[in-house]
Specification:
Length: 147
């Protein structure tokens, strides 16, 4: 069983997957920093500093027809009040859309670079002199064997 496990781990697919996960985690940190540190402040400036993450409804106060005694979502959660934190959900959606857009732009740029490299390789291959075809080589071998 140990030998089977070693063979499984040594397969290229498992190693490739592990490398992909590690690079993906590092890439996630970069994209999250880009969104949190660069893009969200610009959006906050445009929207006048609106912070959706602190929007909530105190369900206990709502059911009793009262106004919530808590000044923030953190304070309500700390007190153990049942809250409907719709602002956190809105923030998560906005962050997802921003991250998806950034990843889309990065993938698009990488694909453009790949396409440019492929075109360059194709141009080099087309400019190289064409060698004999497989059929021509086989015919030469046949003729040489006949002699």
């Amino acid at each position: 069983m140990l030998n089977e496990f070693k063979a499984f781990i040594a397969k290229g697919n498992v190693v490739d997957l592990a490398v992909g996960i590690i690079i993906g985690a590092a890439f996630t940190a970069i994209v999250n920093s880009l969104v949190a540190d660069l893009i969200n402040p610009i959006i906050g400036l445009i929207t006048g500093g609106v912070d959706f993450s602190n929007l909530y409804v105190d369900l206990k106060a709502l059911t009793h027809g009262e106004i919530s005694p808590f000044r923030s979502l953190a304070e309500a959660k700390e007190a153990g009040a049942p809250v409907f934190a719709y602002g956190s959900f809105i923030t998560a959606i906005i962050n997802f859309l921003i991250i998806a857009w950034v990843v889309f732009l990065l993938v698009k740029a990488v694909n453009r670079l790949k396409d440019a490299a492929a075109k360059k390789e194709a141009a080099v291959a087309a400019a190289a002199p064409a060698g004999p075809t497989e059929l021509a080589v086989l015919l030469e071998i046949r003729d040489a064997l006949k002699k």
